[in-house]
Amino acid sequence: MIAEAAVLSDLIGTIYDTALDRALWSDVLRRSAEFVGGSASSLYSKNTAHKTGNKFLCWSPRFDAASLPSYFEEYVRIDPSTTCQFLFDVGQIYSIGDCIPYAEFMETRVYKEWARPLGLADQLAATLDKSAMSFSLFAVFRDEEQGRADDEMRRRMRLIIPHIRRAVLIGNVLDLNTTERTAFADTLDGLAAGVFLVDKNARIVFANRSGQIMLDDGKILRRKDSVLTTVGPQRTTTLPEIIALARDGDAAVGVNGIALPLSSSPEPWLAHILPLTSGIRRDAGIEYSAVAAVFVHKASIQIPSAMETMSKLYKLTPSELRVLAALSEVGGVPAVAEVVGISQTTVKTHLQGLFAKTGTNRQTDLVKLVATHASPLRRAR
User: Fold this and answer.
1) Distances from the Cα of 263 to the Cαs of 160, 197, 219, 258, in angstroms?
2) What strands, in cross-sheet order, belong to the sheet with 260-261?
């Protein structure tokens, strides 16, 4: 356990360093896969409305990484696990078996034509961020020699996911394509997000232009005796308490300070807290006597997808949800059976369950019902 703690601490530090140096992600993906117990890892996203996806980063020595794009070009649109993946909460960890019975997965084209030829047996993933129709995730893959995800793999995954999520979200705010670690402070004034560098007592030692505007406005944040606090009385001690954790190192922050809500609807604002006490971030901290950087920005409006709404409203099972999603996309029992990877008889059984729960009696009625729950922002085909 002592050896694991040392490896984990060093890994977490490097994860946060990616916020200032994107090139470190390759090393993070490799070490994360090795720590968790997999043969490859990736950061990618999926869009449930348009059945598309995008690979951001990938580390893969055990199989040909050049073959990965084919998943997004060919198989993402027929992957029956996607609909279920979208329903998991942000930060929740899940394997293929949590999305679809593994025996069913082995009958799908995704497995037969993509996963099995690559020697892949399982994927343990966690959703990092989610919007109305899409989600991003981090995944560690297991090959056939390693077998399916087990409890030990899940335990180790839980140790790193909060830190990966924080690093990715802060990286999105910073725009890693333009930010260089040696010019960290110089780039802050150009950010739309408010950025505050604070000391161990949450005293502001630097605020960028956007942050200063927020303080002058006084609706979300305020400066009280130089201490950064939220305006809402229910959260006046939350922000300083989380900032204080940063002085004890990266691991101490844990899940605290990730997408911390600062206000409620209709204009939700979030804060992400990045420790500046170790790694390449330490130089920026020393320069300003700061222990943490606080990034504040407005959250996007979360509009539930049709499938998410129907799943909750009609209490659909994962199998019923997969059949409903396939029906709305490809139509017809034979096509649904091929996409989902089950027999036509099983599809018909799930359809009967869907009819009973939704009060419909025809496939066309089910498709119309999905349309009534669809987001008005969904792009026309």
Assistant:
1) 28, 21, 9, 14
2) 204-207, 194-198, 292-298, 269-275, 260-261
H, E, C per residue of 6-38: HHHHHHHHHHHHCCCCHHHHHHHHHHHHHHHCC
Spell out the residues 6+ positions from residue 94 whose beta carbon is closer than 8 angstroms to its own.
85, 88, 124, 125, 126
The CATH 1.10.10.10 portion of the chain extends over: 306-373
Token pair 């869907």 is at which residue? 354
Q: Which of the following CATH numbers is that of domain 181-298: 3.10.20, 3.30.450, 1.10.150, 3.30.70?
A: 3.30.450
Beta bridge partners of 42: 58, 139
Fold designation for 2-174: Beta-Lactamase (3.30.450)
Expressed in angstroms, the distance from the first to the final Cα of the chain is 53
**What angle do the packed helices 344-358 and 363-373 form, to 10 degrees?**
60
123: number of Cβ within 10 Å: 24
Quick: pLDDT tens for 122-171.
999 999 988 767 889 999 999 999 999 999 999 999 999 999 999 988 88
Contacts of 114 (CB under 8 A, 6+ apart): 70, 71, 74, 75
Q: What is the pLDDT of residues 34-82, one digit of tens each?
A: 999 999 999 999 987 677 888 888 888 866 655 555 888 888 888 888 8
Sheet holding 134-143, edge to edge: 52-59, 40-47, 134-143, 120-130, 93-95
pLDDT value of residue 303: 54
Going by C-beta distance under 8 Å and a sequence separation of 6 or more, which residues neighbour residue 220?
Answer: 214, 230, 231, 262, 263, 269, 296
Query: Which tokens hold the place of 368?
Result: 């119309």
Residue 221 parent element (H or E) = strand 221-224
As a CATH number, domain 306-373 is 1.10.10.10
